[in-house]
Design brief:
There is one protein chain. By secondary structure, the chain is mainly α. The chain contains 4 helices and no strands. The chain has a domain of 105 residues. Helices cover 66% and strands 0% of the residues. It is rod-shaped and about 140 Å long.
Length: 161
Amino acid sequence: MTAPAEQTEEQTAPQEGEEQTAEELSPDVLRKQLEKARKEAANYRTKVRELEPLASKAKELEEAQKTESQKLAERAEAAERTASEAQRELARFRVLSEVALPPELHEFVVGNDEDELRAKAQKLKAQFSADAQSVDVGQGPRGTSAAPSMSALIRQAAGRA
């Protein structure tokens, strides 16, 4: 009577290719197998409950790291943009200096590289040179009279002309 109840797992589990005999399918053997399967399932459920908080913490840490790395990547991109912009400004001022244009004109000198900047600066300088040559600086009344002296201007202002 107790012989089927004392069978081990290896003895009760049918091997591949073997046919199950009537003794292996007895209710006692099947109950033991079912009980054993239930205990294993309970153990697995317990392990899952124990590991779920650890898994969620690991996921949170991974997300936090991911977010931190994304922040670092954004900061790096912003720094690269700032450095690139500073290099463009430096190139613009360098070209203005080479062409001998005042720095106030830097906003009018635009381009993707120094060659384009230089071409625009030279064109701007040529335009200013042409305008300067065509303007008559000595505009005003023409005559032979010389400019009044400082003393004459002071007397005139004081009313002693």
